Amino acid sequence: MRISIRTHYTESDVRQSTIADMREAARAGYEALELCVVGGPQGLRGPCTDLTSADVDAIIEAGEETGVPVTSLSSDWVWQYGTADRPLSDWEEGVEGLAKDAELARQIGASYSLCHLAESHGTWDEAKDILAAAGDAAAEQGVWFGYEASLFVRCGLGQFDDLLRMLDELDHPAMGAYDHCWYPERGRPAHVQVEQIGERLYGYHSSLLTPETTDYGKLFDAMKRVGYKGDWVFEISWEHAEEQCTLLKELMKAAE
Predict the structure, then answer these.
(1) What is the DSSP string of 2-60?
(2) How far apart, in whole angstroms, are the C-alpha atoms of residue 218 and residue 225?
(3) Dihedral class, residue 104 (left if φ above 0, else alpha if ψ from -120 to 50, else beta)
(4) How far apart are the C-alpha atoms of 233 and 195, rounded to whole Å?
(5) Can you give the pLDDT of all 256 residues of the chain as single tens digits?
(6) pTM for the model
Protein backbone atom coordinates (compact mmCIF):
# COMPACT_ATOMS: atom_id res chain seq x y z
CA MET A 1 0.00 0.00 0.00
CA ARG A 2 1.51 3.29 -1.11
CA ILE A 3 1.54 6.37 1.11
CA SER A 4 0.01 9.36 -0.64
CA ILE A 5 -0.84 12.96 0.22
CA ARG A 6 -3.73 15.05 -1.01
CA THR A 7 -2.81 18.33 -2.68
CA HIS A 8 -4.59 21.43 -3.99
CA TYR A 9 -2.95 23.00 -7.01
CA THR A 10 -2.52 26.71 -7.64
CA GLU A 11 -5.45 27.69 -9.83
CA SER A 12 -3.29 29.90 -12.05
CA ASP A 13 -0.96 27.02 -12.95
CA VAL A 14 -2.10 23.45 -12.36
CA ARG A 15 0.94 22.00 -14.11
CA GLN A 16 3.73 23.78 -12.24
CA SER A 17 2.11 23.71 -8.80
CA THR A 18 1.39 19.98 -9.09
CA ILE A 19 4.99 19.28 -10.09
CA ALA A 20 6.20 21.41 -7.16
CA ASP A 21 3.99 19.38 -4.81
CA MET A 22 5.43 16.14 -6.20
CA ARG A 23 8.92 17.33 -5.31
CA GLU A 24 7.86 18.37 -1.82
CA ALA A 25 6.06 15.06 -1.30
CA ALA A 26 9.15 13.13 -2.42
CA ARG A 27 11.28 15.06 0.05
CA ALA A 28 8.84 14.14 2.83
CA GLY A 29 8.96 10.43 1.94
CA TYR A 30 5.70 9.97 0.03
CA GLU A 31 5.13 7.61 -2.87
CA ALA A 32 2.05 9.14 -4.51
CA LEU A 33 -0.14 12.22 -4.82
CA GLU A 34 -3.90 12.74 -4.78
CA LEU A 35 -4.84 15.69 -6.99
CA CYS A 36 -7.92 17.69 -6.01
CA VAL A 37 -9.96 18.92 -8.96
CA VAL A 38 -11.28 22.25 -7.67
CA GLY A 39 -14.19 24.25 -9.04
CA GLY A 40 -14.30 27.31 -11.22
CA PRO A 41 -16.75 30.24 -11.19
CA GLN A 42 -19.71 28.00 -12.05
CA GLY A 43 -18.60 25.18 -9.76
CA LEU A 44 -17.45 22.95 -12.60
CA ARG A 45 -13.91 21.57 -12.60
CA GLY A 46 -12.12 24.91 -12.79
CA PRO A 47 -8.56 25.04 -14.21
CA CYS A 48 -8.41 21.28 -14.87
CA THR A 49 -10.74 21.91 -17.79
CA ASP A 50 -7.91 23.76 -19.53
CA LEU A 51 -5.17 21.17 -19.03
CA THR A 52 -3.51 20.38 -22.35
CA SER A 53 -2.00 17.06 -23.38
CA ALA A 54 1.41 18.71 -22.90
CA ASP A 55 0.46 19.61 -19.31
CA VAL A 56 -0.63 16.05 -18.61
CA ASP A 57 2.54 14.63 -20.16
CA ALA A 58 4.67 16.99 -18.05
CA ILE A 59 2.88 15.93 -14.85
CA ILE A 60 3.33 12.25 -15.71
CA GLU A 61 7.01 12.79 -16.48
CA ALA A 62 7.53 14.65 -13.20
CA GLY A 63 5.82 11.82 -11.34
CA GLU A 64 8.25 9.35 -12.87
CA GLU A 65 11.25 11.56 -12.08
CA THR A 66 10.27 12.19 -8.45
CA GLY A 67 8.80 8.77 -7.73
CA VAL A 68 5.56 10.48 -6.68
CA PRO A 69 2.98 10.00 -9.45
CA VAL A 70 -0.63 11.15 -9.28
CA THR A 71 -2.45 7.93 -8.41
CA SER A 72 -5.85 9.33 -7.40
CA LEU A 73 -8.08 12.36 -7.89
CA SER A 74 -10.71 14.04 -5.73
CA SER A 75 -13.74 15.75 -7.29
CA ASP A 76 -13.69 18.77 -4.96
CA TRP A 77 -15.53 21.00 -7.45
CA VAL A 78 -18.69 19.15 -6.40
CA TRP A 79 -18.79 21.25 -3.21
CA GLN A 80 -19.44 24.33 -5.32
CA TYR A 81 -21.71 22.55 -7.77
CA GLY A 82 -23.79 20.32 -5.49
CA THR A 83 -25.17 23.00 -3.19
CA ALA A 84 -28.32 22.60 -1.11
CA ASP A 85 -30.34 24.59 -3.66
CA ARG A 86 -29.40 22.27 -6.56
CA PRO A 87 -31.64 19.18 -6.58
CA LEU A 88 -30.32 15.84 -7.75
CA SER A 89 -32.75 16.11 -10.65
CA ASP A 90 -30.54 18.95 -11.96
CA TRP A 91 -27.26 17.04 -12.06
CA GLU A 92 -26.75 16.54 -15.79
CA GLU A 93 -23.68 18.78 -15.88
CA GLY A 94 -22.47 17.18 -12.66
CA VAL A 95 -22.51 13.74 -14.25
CA GLU A 96 -20.57 15.16 -17.20
CA GLY A 97 -18.05 16.66 -14.77
CA LEU A 98 -17.52 13.33 -13.02
CA ALA A 99 -17.05 11.69 -16.41
CA LYS A 100 -14.36 14.27 -17.20
CA ASP A 101 -12.66 13.47 -13.89
CA ALA A 102 -12.64 9.79 -14.81
CA GLU A 103 -11.10 10.69 -18.17
CA LEU A 104 -8.45 12.87 -16.52
CA ALA A 105 -7.67 10.07 -14.07
CA ARG A 106 -6.90 7.74 -16.96
CA GLN A 107 -4.91 10.37 -18.84
CA ILE A 108 -2.77 11.31 -15.87
CA GLY A 109 -2.15 7.72 -14.78
CA ALA A 110 -4.42 7.64 -11.71
CA SER A 111 -6.51 4.60 -10.86
CA TYR A 112 -9.42 6.14 -8.98
CA SER A 113 -11.17 9.30 -7.82
CA LEU A 114 -13.14 10.37 -4.77
CA CYS A 115 -16.69 11.49 -5.51
CA HIS A 116 -19.82 12.57 -3.62
CA LEU A 117 -23.08 14.45 -4.14
CA ALA A 118 -22.23 17.24 -1.67
CA GLU A 119 -25.46 18.73 -0.27
CA SER A 120 -27.77 18.21 -3.25
CA HIS A 121 -31.00 16.55 -2.18
CA GLY A 122 -33.41 14.35 -4.07
CA THR A 123 -34.77 10.83 -4.21
CA TRP A 124 -32.93 7.59 -3.66
CA ASP A 125 -33.40 6.61 -7.29
CA GLU A 126 -32.08 9.96 -8.55
CA ALA A 127 -28.89 9.50 -6.52
CA LYS A 128 -28.62 5.91 -7.69
CA ASP A 129 -28.93 6.95 -11.34
CA ILE A 130 -26.19 9.59 -10.95
CA LEU A 131 -23.81 7.15 -9.31
CA ALA A 132 -24.58 4.47 -11.90
CA ALA A 133 -23.80 6.92 -14.71
CA ALA A 134 -20.57 7.99 -12.98
CA GLY A 135 -19.62 4.35 -12.52
CA ASP A 136 -20.25 3.67 -16.21
CA ALA A 137 -18.04 6.63 -17.15
CA ALA A 138 -15.27 5.38 -14.86
CA ALA A 139 -15.51 1.85 -16.24
CA GLU A 140 -15.15 3.19 -19.79
CA GLN A 141 -11.85 4.79 -18.72
CA GLY A 142 -10.62 1.75 -16.80
CA VAL A 143 -10.69 3.57 -13.43
CA TRP A 144 -13.05 3.62 -10.46
CA PHE A 145 -14.88 6.03 -8.14
CA GLY A 146 -15.08 5.86 -4.35
CA TYR A 147 -17.95 7.72 -2.65
CA GLU A 148 -16.66 9.46 0.49
CA ALA A 149 -18.53 7.50 3.16
CA SER A 150 -18.64 10.28 5.75
CA LEU A 151 -20.44 12.60 3.32
CA PHE A 152 -23.42 10.47 2.29
CA VAL A 153 -25.45 11.97 5.13
CA ARG A 154 -25.09 15.43 3.54
CA CYS A 155 -27.44 14.55 0.68
CA GLY A 156 -30.17 13.51 3.10
CA LEU A 157 -30.44 9.88 2.08
CA GLY A 158 -29.07 8.24 5.20
CA GLN A 159 -25.92 7.31 7.03
CA PHE A 160 -22.95 5.00 6.49
CA ASP A 161 -25.07 1.83 6.40
CA ASP A 162 -27.36 3.42 3.82
CA LEU A 163 -24.40 4.16 1.55
CA LEU A 164 -23.43 0.50 1.74
CA ARG A 165 -27.02 -0.42 0.82
CA MET A 166 -26.81 1.96 -2.13
CA LEU A 167 -23.57 0.33 -3.28
CA ASP A 168 -25.14 -3.11 -2.90
CA GLU A 169 -28.10 -2.07 -5.04
CA LEU A 170 -25.81 -0.54 -7.66
CA ASP A 171 -23.50 -3.55 -7.67
CA HIS A 172 -21.19 -1.59 -9.97
CA PRO A 173 -17.55 -2.69 -10.27
CA ALA A 174 -16.42 0.94 -10.77
CA MET A 175 -18.28 2.49 -7.80
CA GLY A 176 -17.33 1.81 -4.19
CA ALA A 177 -16.73 3.59 -0.88
CA TYR A 178 -13.93 6.00 0.01
CA ASP A 179 -13.45 5.72 3.77
CA HIS A 180 -11.84 8.11 6.27
CA CYS A 181 -10.43 6.66 9.49
CA TRP A 182 -11.21 9.83 11.46
CA TYR A 183 -14.94 9.37 10.94
CA PRO A 184 -15.92 5.93 12.26
CA GLU A 185 -19.71 5.64 12.23
CA ARG A 186 -21.46 5.40 15.60
CA GLY A 187 -18.31 4.63 17.54
CA ARG A 188 -17.18 1.74 15.38
CA PRO A 189 -13.42 1.20 15.41
CA ALA A 190 -11.72 2.01 12.11
CA HIS A 191 -10.92 -1.64 11.37
CA VAL A 192 -14.53 -2.68 11.96
CA GLN A 193 -15.76 -0.07 9.51
CA VAL A 194 -13.29 -1.32 6.88
CA GLU A 195 -14.54 -4.87 7.42
CA GLN A 196 -18.13 -3.70 6.95
CA ILE A 197 -17.26 -1.96 3.70
CA GLY A 198 -15.42 -5.08 2.59
CA GLU A 199 -14.56 -5.43 -1.09
CA ARG A 200 -16.35 -2.13 -1.74
CA LEU A 201 -13.41 -0.22 -0.16
CA TYR A 202 -12.08 1.78 -3.11
CA GLY A 203 -10.18 4.59 -1.34
CA TYR A 204 -8.86 5.55 2.09
CA HIS A 205 -8.24 8.96 3.66
CA SER A 206 -6.44 9.77 6.90
CA SER A 207 -6.03 12.91 8.96
CA LEU A 208 -3.31 13.07 11.65
CA LEU A 209 -2.55 9.60 12.99
CA THR A 210 -3.92 8.67 16.42
CA PRO A 211 -2.01 5.58 17.63
CA GLU A 212 -3.23 6.20 21.17
CA THR A 213 -6.85 5.49 20.15
CA THR A 214 -6.60 3.54 16.87
CA ASP A 215 -5.34 -0.03 16.54
CA TYR A 216 -3.45 0.31 13.26
CA GLY A 217 -2.34 -3.30 13.27
CA LYS A 218 -5.98 -4.41 13.14
CA LEU A 219 -6.73 -1.74 10.56
CA PHE A 220 -3.93 -2.86 8.22
CA ASP A 221 -5.02 -6.49 8.63
CA ALA A 222 -8.60 -5.55 7.77
CA MET A 223 -7.43 -3.75 4.63
CA LYS A 224 -5.51 -6.83 3.54
CA ARG A 225 -8.48 -9.12 4.20
CA VAL A 226 -10.87 -7.05 2.08
CA GLY A 227 -8.31 -6.84 -0.73
CA TYR A 228 -7.87 -3.07 -0.65
CA LYS A 229 -5.90 -2.00 -3.72
CA GLY A 230 -5.68 1.79 -3.28
CA ASP A 231 -3.38 4.07 -1.31
CA TRP A 232 -3.28 5.46 2.22
CA VAL A 233 -4.00 9.11 1.42
CA PHE A 234 -3.15 11.73 4.03
CA GLU A 235 -5.47 14.74 4.11
CA ILE A 236 -3.15 16.99 6.14
CA SER A 237 -1.16 20.21 5.89
CA TRP A 238 2.40 20.21 4.60
CA GLU A 239 3.73 21.18 8.03
CA HIS A 240 2.81 17.70 9.29
CA ALA A 241 3.56 15.79 6.10
CA GLU A 242 7.01 14.40 6.86
CA GLU A 243 6.39 13.45 10.49
CA GLN A 244 3.12 11.68 9.64
CA CYS A 245 4.63 9.78 6.73
CA THR A 246 7.48 8.60 8.96
CA LEU A 247 5.07 7.57 11.73
CA LEU A 248 2.85 5.61 9.33
CA LYS A 249 5.87 3.73 7.97
CA GLU A 250 6.83 2.85 11.55
CA LEU A 251 3.30 1.62 12.31
CA MET A 252 3.22 -0.44 9.12
CA LYS A 253 6.59 -2.01 9.90
CA ALA A 254 5.51 -2.82 13.46
CA ALA A 255 2.42 -4.57 12.10
CA GLU A 256 4.35 -6.87 9.74
Answers:
(1) -EEEEEE--TT-HHHHHHHHHHHHHHTT-SEEEEE----TTSS-GGGGG--HHHHHHHH
(2) 10
(3) alpha
(4) 19
(5) 999 999 987 666 888 999 999 999 999 999 999 999 887 765 577 677 778 899 999 999 999 999 999 999 999 999 989 999 999 999 999 999 999 999 999 999 999 999 999 999 999 999 999 999 999 999 999 999 999 999 999 999 999 999 999 999 999 999 999 998 766 666 789 999 999 999 999 999 999 999 998 999 999 999 999 999 999 999 999 999 999 999 999 999 999 8
(6) 0.93
- Name the residue type at position 192: V
Extents of the domains making up the chain: 3-254
Instruction: To the nearest 10°, report the CA torsion of 33, 59, 39, 44.
Output: -120
| Fold entry, domain 3-254 | TIM Barrel (3.20.20)
Q: Are 40 and 47 in contact (CB under 8 A)?
A: yes
Burial code of 196-218, b = ≥16 C-beta within 10 A, e = fewer?
Answer: bbbebbbbbbbeebeeeebebeb
